[in-house]
Specification:
By secondary structure, the chain is an alpha/beta fold. The chain is built from 13 helices and 8 strands. The protein folds into 2 domains: 240 residues, Rossmann fold (3-Layer(aba) Sandwich), CATH 3.40.50; 88 residues, no CATH class. It has an 8-stranded mixed beta sheet, with helices on both faces. The longest helix has 20 residues.
């Protein structure tokens, strides 16, 4: 089975934004007029995948960024990828857009998908093999990107955008709590009780222990007027019934305790981690402090930057962003500048 990423191939025709982190309109025009694109196959975790390779129109080999995308950002014209790709191309960097396959549901499988994309670039004469780096964001940045970099000592650099530096279990419980507070209007004590039960339920499904107190707590929760809106199950059984659970849920239960700092501590290449100070989805200040301590303890080449007035996904809007919300121009300019410096260049857009 061949996984195919259906990116909009009319990039050159629509690449006309002038404010995407570049300092002049001429850089934008240069990216639009001097573009090569091709679908490039690579070996993933047990199957053949493909991504979209975009290159400046040049006869010399170039550095490259493997940009890991989410499945819903497949229309380049209408997604936040447009100014990102445009700025990288204008600086003389090739961009390989890849998405882990839908069947790659473990972190290790996703890391192998991305690693295969990197290896495919290294085999090309038009890409500088020593100057290939990785851009990831959100959960991929926390739990998959570091795995890729830890296993690849040749990787030139890694950019982590809005990476939640916590376990998947903690991330899911925190995200659930925020939704209950903001969307359902629950009080913090109620939210705390719901999330504690959810965590205890995961423990029970994983270990098979603790049925009696869990069933008693659920019986008490049933009597609460807010229970129907809590998202909690109707019952728990004396023996965990895992056979009816989706495969992704089973994988989550297995991976929910993965600590991202373990893989990140083994990364040899320079790392840039960036956050927005006004991110309402994550405690970014806490994550930044954690990364600073990790950098000192593991002797990492790690730079952490937090931008005031910037929200989640590094957008200027503090409200929840969408797939079309662009990265703030100054932040994008900084990201491209740092990336270019890692491959021995100067920032001269």
């Amino acid at each position: 089975m061949v996984g195919f990423i259906r990116f909009c191939l009319c990039f050159a025709a629509v690449c006309t934004l002038s404010d995407c982190g570049a300092s002049s309109a001429s850089a934008s025009a240069r990216a639009a007029d001097s573009l090569r694109s091709e679908t490039l196959p690579f070996d993933g975790a047990g199957q053949t995948l493909s991504g979209l390779l975009l290159r400046p129109q040049t006869s010399i080999s170039t550095p490259a960024v493997v940009l890991v995308t989410e499945p819903w950002t497949t229309d380049l014209e209408h997604s936040r990828l447009m100014p990102v790709v445009q700025s990288l191309l204008a600086q003389g960097l090739s961009v390989f857009l890849v998405t882990p396959d839908d069947h790659s549901i473990t972190f290790d499988q996703q890391a192998r998908d991305i690693g295969g994309a990197i290896r495919s670039l290294r085999s090309r004469s038009d890409i500088q093999p020593a100057n290939i780096g990785l851009w990831t964001e959100d959960t991929v940045a926390a739990w998959v990107g570091p795995l890729v970099a830890a296993k690849d000592p040749q990787l030139a650099f890694m950019v982590l955008i809005a990476a939640p530096m916590e376990t998947p279990g903690t991330f899911e419980l925190r995200t659930l709590g925020q939704a209950l507070l903001e969307q359902e209007g629950f009080t913090e004590p109620i939210v705390d009780r719901i999330t504690r039960f959810r965590g205890a339920l995961w423990d029970y499904l994983t270990t098979g222990e603790g049925y009696e107190p869990l069933a008693a707590e659920l019986g008490d929760l049933h009597a609460k007027p807010w229970y129907p809106r809590s998202g909690l199950p109707q019952q728990v059984t004396p023996t965990p019934e895992l056979g009816d659970l989706p495969q992704r849920t089973l994988v989550f239960l297995e991976q929910r305790g993965v600590e991202p700092s373990l893989a990140l501590s083994r990364v040899a290449c320079p790392i840039l981690a960036v956050y927005g100070d006004e991110d309402r989805k994550m405690p970014t200040a806490e994550f930044a402090v954690k990364l600073h301590f990790l950098a000192a303890a593991a002797d990492l080449d790690l730079t952490v930057r937090s931008y005031p007035g910037i929200g989640h996904d590094l957008t200027t809007a503090v409200k929840e962003s969408t797939a079309a919300s662009p990265i703030a121009p100054q932040v994008l300019s900084d990201l491209v500048k740092w990336t270019w410096e890692q491959v021995g260049g100067n920032h001269d857009l």
